[in-house]
Design a protein that fits this description.
CATH architecture: Alpha-Beta Barrel
Helix content: 40-55%
CATH class: Alpha Beta
Structural class: alpha/beta
Distance between the termini: 23 Å
CATH topology: TIM Barrel
Strand order of the largest sheet: 2-3-4-5-6-7
Largest sheet: 6 strands, parallel
Oligomer: single chain
Strand content: 5-15%
Radius of gyration: 19 Å
CATH superfamily: Aldolase class I
Length: 366
């Protein structure tokens, strides 16, 4: 089967397509490319939400500094080492370390932990803690962090600036890189590439004020950045955020009202334009469609799942959005749910670290 090269017009047409029979063609193409390029394996990442402390006041996120309704926490080094043991017992070869912005633990403590995971336990490490200085990126890379996830959220600069307040609206002293702007993150993603990280980014679908043309531009930026990993999830309103009020005014718009379907379309189109990238079926999808979301993501181009191995007592406080899927599960149950979804999608659990084939090809190792 020959898959046509997607033009911006074709991307836009697919994003606007509502005929289910036609959409089956898109799902088939994405699944065909996925099977041919990255195979049947679905690789698991053990997600550790190691701190919900955040210095930013992004208008969409429940972890925003102004939200006083959540109990703030940071896992101890001992807690994190315990999570490593859980991952290894489950056969998971990659950790995804995630927190709010503004590193919650002392940097040297994090560096020591990363060296332990990478060099003693031989696991892959993905870090997602927002914007950092070039010096910090380099320090984490030298400590063994080999993957970094920094979502640019939307390619629409005005919309980005609307949902990410500038320095004057953030907690004093925590903004290291100037105003929180789209161009900063794009520069950082390019710097991460220079530092030899596997580079991941992504967007939210269904942001109030977002348009189909914005989503097309997101896809074009994925391709321009030549991303190794792409995370795409639906926007989930959190009642303790300013953007949730805007969502009420926009929820009948095409993008907001169709954000689940558009997320599947974005996953499928991303698989076609970046055929050997790693693409997760996200927790946000599983939250929006608890019965089928994770499986449908896998069937429409995704090849990654991230069972949550954060200690259960902290899960409910990592409330980026409310009623997040898996909050009540322990690590074993979260892992079992991921394995079940893989079986339902007719796929197999991948062994090992599941490096991005796009990254390996660029480095001449594949």
């Amino acid at each position: 089967m020959k898959i046509p090269e997607l033009t911006p017009r074709m991307m836009r047409d697919w994003l606007l397509e509502e005929d289910s029979a036609r959409l089956e063609q898109l799902w088939y193409m994405a699944n065909f490319v996925r099977e041919r390029k990255v195979g049947q394996d679905v690789f698991l990442r053990g997600l550790i939400e190691f701190s919900n402390r955040c210095a930013r006041n992004c208008t969409y996120c429940g972890l925003r500094a102004a939200n006083g309704d959540i109990a703030r926490y940071s896992l101890s080094e001992r807690d994190m080492i315990g999570c490593v043991g859980v991952a290894l017992e489950l056969g998971i070869g990659t950790l995804v370390m995630q927190s709010g912005e503004g590193v919650a633990l002392e940097t040297e403590q994090l560096l020591r932990f990363f060296r332990f995971v990478r060099h003693e336990k031989k696991m892959a490490l993905t870090l997602s803690v927002g914007e950092l200085s070039d010096v910090e990126f380099l320090a984490f890379r030298e400590a063994g962090v080999n993957r970094y996830l920094l979502r640019f959220e939307t390619s629409n600069k005005a919309l980005y600036n609307h949902i990410h307040p500038a320095k004057k609206n953030c907690v004093e002293g925590n903004q290291k890189n100037g105003n929180h702007t789209d161009s900063d993150r794009i520069r950082m993603l390019r710097k991460l590439r220079e530092l030899n990280f596997e580079v991941g980014s992504g967007v939210m679908v269904g942001i109030p004020g977002q348009t189909v043309d914005d989503l097309v531009n997101d896809l074009l930026l994925f391709r321009e950045l030549d991303l190794d990993m792409v995370g795409i999830g639906p926007y989930m309103p959190h009642p303790e955020t300013p953007l949730a009020l805007e969502f009420e005014d926009h929820k009948s718009s095409y993008v907001c009202s169709n954000r689940e379907l558009l997320t599947y379309k974005m996953i499928a189109l991303t698989r076609i334009i970046l055929p050997d990238a790693n693409i997760p079926s996200t927790t946000a999808l599983a939250t929006l469609n608890r019965e089928h979301g994770r499986v449908l993501g896998l069937q429409r181009g995704a090849n990654i799942l991230m069972p949550n191995i954060t200690p259960q007592e902290y899960r409910s406080e990592y409330s980026i959005y409310p009623e997040k899927a898996g909050t009540s599960m322990g690590p074993d149950d979260s892992y079992a749910a991921a394995v079940s979804a893989i079986a339902q999608a007719g796929r197999t659990v991948g062994a090992g670290k599941g490096d991005s084939l796009r990254y390996l090809a660029r480095k001449g190792n594949h």
